[in-house]
DNA sequence: TAGTCCATGTGACAAATGTTACTGTAGCTA
DNA sequence: TAGCTACAGTAACATTTGTCACATGGACTA
């Protein structure tokens, strides 16, 4: 059994053996470096990727190049947007940037469509992915629609800590500001208040979550 | 041919005859009155509805009962959220309220799952619906993430005019404020500015779009 | 006609957020 | 060590949005 197969089986335990064999036979293994843009708003979608290792962030771009974080992609997941795009030439509505070096399997569109009918486990994966991503985006809507920046920041920090599995968040205030579409000064200000409330401890290039 | 069949064929022209026959055989026709809540956040989803007539609005509820408009549903459409929910007991993440009296066909969950495999035209409809709704929600994210209230109001008015197919929008400032999650005074203020710029004419309970 | 809603207009102020400008400081390296 | 750069802190101010208070005026009804 190849290493890719092992990794596929580990990260996508619900895939049937048939499906994994097909992936092996027809799809290519690829790696991406931190900072790489895997998919960009407006580009035609030609394939989707299954993440085996690393982390991607999916964000929406504003007219003036602002970024707005939607969610992270991790091993065992796939880009929802590219999973469902009719055979027509569909362009991407989002940008995907590598946060941590990524190992992934690339799957051409044509195969995906076929698999939906032939592989129950693929079908279920797609449905599940789509539903959970939709919910995640709805939660993002909640945050920006109903909550002020201080709450959003808190939510962001918690999500980040959860994603990396630790309480130390290695991000500059500038980076956070970018993802929440605000300015560094605002983030600094709010973080200071959070520190006064005992919710975080601030260090250079690191925020220690106390909750 | 029954009236429902005719209406189904007209509003869902891509459905195969087989599919329409199945719908006829197993699904029930229902009507809802303006103001009815068809689906509420937290409720279990037991079925989906295909709209034949009227208009629904789909919105997200805040912790304190605030509303936030996501999109409208019109004849020929279906509620995306309820289209994809695994057989498990899934609760709704949104609320659907009738804007204009609705005629619809109700489809039980169990059938939907079967049809995905057996009816290509249903499968394509589901995929298409999901994709377009996802995009619509992403556009909503853009609006609240990147744009100020004046732009959002303008976008809202245009979308509303498009949905009803006319330039006269019969809404009070209060109703608009609710859907954009702001206050009436803010809407009044911004509308006045828009009137000064010649973009609208304001009347009692009506806003005339000039663009 | 007087009274009562309801929708709207508007001024004054409060609070949140965005912007500008400047300071300090840690870490790197020439 | 001096100089550079990136990061962080913060004061001061502008702008946007939210809130309160109150006025106006149309539509309807007792």
UniProtKB/TrEMBL annotation, chains A, B:
PROSITE patterns (UniProt xref): CNMP_BINDING_3 (PS50042), HTH_CRP_2 (PS51063)
Annotated keywords: DNA-binding, Transcription, Transcription regulation
Domain HTH crp-type: 147-211
Domain of life, source organism: Bacteria
Domain (Cyclic nucleotide-binding): residue spans on this chain: 11-77
Pfam families in alphabetical order: cNMP_binding, HTH_Crp_2
Protein name: Crp/Fnr family transcriptional regulator
């Amino acid at each position: 059994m190849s290493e890719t197969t092992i990794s596929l089986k580990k990260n996508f335990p619900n895939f049937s053996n048939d499906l994994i064999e097909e992936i092996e036979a027809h799809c290519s293994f690829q790696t991406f470096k931190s900072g790489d843009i895997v998919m960009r708003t407006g580009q035609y979608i030609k394939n989707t990727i299954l993440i085996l290792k690393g982390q991607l962030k999916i964000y929406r771009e504003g007219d003036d190049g602002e970024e707005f974080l939607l969610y992270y992609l991790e091993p065992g997941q796939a880009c929802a947007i590219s999973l469902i795009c009719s055979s027509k030439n569909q362009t991407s509505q989002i940008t995907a940037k590598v946060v941590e070096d990524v190992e992934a399997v690339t799957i051409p569109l044509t195969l995906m469509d076929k698999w939906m009918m032939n592989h129950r486990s693929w079908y279920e994966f797609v449905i599940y992915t789509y539903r959970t991503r939709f919910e995640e985006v709805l939660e993002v809507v909640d945050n920006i629609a109903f909550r002020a920046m201080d709450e959003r920041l808190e939510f962001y920090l918690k999500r980040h800590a959860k994603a990396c599995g630790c309480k130390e968040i290695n991000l500059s205030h500038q980076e956070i500001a970018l993802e929440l579409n605000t300015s560094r000064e605002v983030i600094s200000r709010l973080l200071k208040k959070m520190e006064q409330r005992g919710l975080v401890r601030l260090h250079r290039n690191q925020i220690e979550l106390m909750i």
